[in-house]
């Protein structure tokens, strides 16, 4: 079905693996389209309660965008590339109602780091290296990197990372708050699955509402508190809320219908 990605589903977790090892899993147009399709299918699947995105092999999560595809682009083509990519994949993932964990298993550079930052949170193997090297090519990050990196690591650190075009190692990424956890390479996916397992025990409807409310805090012209109030109120009309509160009062584990 897909040329550049692998998709598997197990225990309500869908794992999407970028599989272009000869190109260090670089993002080209086709891969972005395939990722969009896979995320859309997973999000619509009632049996998927969490999504893990990772790269194949031990070298790279995603080593960047495929530069050969846009080296001769004009100004308008460059703008369209960024706009379309953000809409199809990066903003799409950030606003997905199903939680997305990025399992960074090696190099996450340029578009690769931008992809990881679009996920709801990140875990990394201890050999991972991250950076936005775009200014060394005479361009800037165009898939949300200049916006998401300062939110995650602070303005000063983001400015330094972008301006130097340098890489930080996994320990520094953890210290910066760019990743939540640092794990040995062979334990990375099992750890991400364990985290996903904790997530899927909870109400998927409430989690979707929480994603909307948290994201609202970072949107210009949007009052995040109002979004929280609205989403909080909406929860009261769900079957999950009825089940969650009843289970609590009956001192039993909730069995959420996801409605």
Helices and strands, with pairings:
Blueprint: E1 5-10, E2 13-18, H1 29-44, E3 50-55, E4 60-62, H2 75-94, E5 100-104, E6 107-109, H3 111-118, E7 121-125, E8 129-131, H4 145-153, H5 155-164, E9 167-169, H6 170-176, E10 181-183, H7 188-200, H8 204-216, H9 224-235, H10 239-249
Parallel strand pairs: 2-3, 3-5, 4-6, 5-7, 6-8, 7-10
Antiparallel strand pairs: 1-2, 8-9
SSE order: EEHEEHEEHEEHHEHEHHHH
Structural class call reads alpha/beta
Please state the CA-atom Rg, rounded to the nearest Å. 19 Å
Major beta-sheet overview: 6 strands, mixed
Poorly predicted regions: none
| Largest sheet: spatial strand order | 1-2-3-5-7-10
Strand content: 15-25%
Helix percent band:
40-55%
Task: Tell me the number of strands.
Answer: 10
What average pLDDT do the residues reach?
96
Q: What is the molecular shape?
A: globular
């Amino acid at each position: 079905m897909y040329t550049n990605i692998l998709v598997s589903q197990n225990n309500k977790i869908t794992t999407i693996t970028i599989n272009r090892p000869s190109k260090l899993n670089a993002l080209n147009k086709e891969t972005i389209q395939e990722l969009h399709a896979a995320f859309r299918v997973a999000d619509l699947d009632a049996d998927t309660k969490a999504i893990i995105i990772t790269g194949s092999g031990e070298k790279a999560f995603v080593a960047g965008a495929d530069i050969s595809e846009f080296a001769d682009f004009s100004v308008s083509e460059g703008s369209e590339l960024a706009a379309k990519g953000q809409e199809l994949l990066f903003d799409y993932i950030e606003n997905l109602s199903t939680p997305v964990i990025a399992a960074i298993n090696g190099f996450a550079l340029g578009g690769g780091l931008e992809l990881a930052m679009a996920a709801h949170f990140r875990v990394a193997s201890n050999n991972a290296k991250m950076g936005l090297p775009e200014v060394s090519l005479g361009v800037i990050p165009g898939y949300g990197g200049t916006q998401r990196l300062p939110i995650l690591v602070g303005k000063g650190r983001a400015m330094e990372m972008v301006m130097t075009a340098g890489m930080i190692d996994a320990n520094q990424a953890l210290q910066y708050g760019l990743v939540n956890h640092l794990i040995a390479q062979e334990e990375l996916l099992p750890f991400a699955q364990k985290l996903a397992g904790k997530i899927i025990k909870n109400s998927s409807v409430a989690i979707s509402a929480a994603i909307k409310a948290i994201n609202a805090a970072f949107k210009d012209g949007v009052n995040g508190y109002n979004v929280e109030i609205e989403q909080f109120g909406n929860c009261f009309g769900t079957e999950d809320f009825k089940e969650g509160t009843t289970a609590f009062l009956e001192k039993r584990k909730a069995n959420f219908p996801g409605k």
